[in-house]
Specification:
single chain; alpha+beta; two-stranded antiparallel ribbon; 4 helices; 2 strands; elongated
Length: 119
């Protein structure tokens, strides 16, 4: 008689895979996630307040692929945007100053004031 080994190697039952926070964050930033919600406050069927929340969490590269880059043009967030805004404001003020200083030779009245007076 031959000895037969009926024992089989039993592999462990697969359980839920564990991932760490860094892996989850990397996936979220790589793909992006949108969270949306509305908060509405009514009193006696009269709408008092509605707040709409839209949150898009992603990496800068993913956001740019989605066409979102407002932080580059917001002067509160970008020093380049702040400089550009100041430069544009300065240009507009100089234009308005030149307009006011261009006086009519006959009356000495600035051209902008003459336009307002209708003369």
């Amino acid at each position: 008689m031959t000895d037969i080994d009926f024992r089989q190697e039993v592999s462990p039952v697969p359980g839920p895979q564990t991932t760490n926070l860094a892996d989850i964050l990397e996936r979220v930033l790589d793909k992006g996630i949108v969270i949306a919600g509305d908060i509405k406050i009514d009193l006696l069927d009269i709408e008092l307040l509605t707040i709409r929340l839209r949150l898009f969490v992603a990496s800068v590269d993913t956001a740019k692929k989605a066409g979102i880059d407002w932080w580059e043009t917001d002067p509160a967030l970008s020093s380049r945007a702040a400089r550009d805004e100041l430069r544009e404001e300065n240009r507009e003020l100089r234009r308005r100053l030149d307009e006011l200083e261009s006086e009519d030779d006959d009356t000495g009245t600035p051209a902008a004031i003459k336009e307002k007076q209708g003369t």
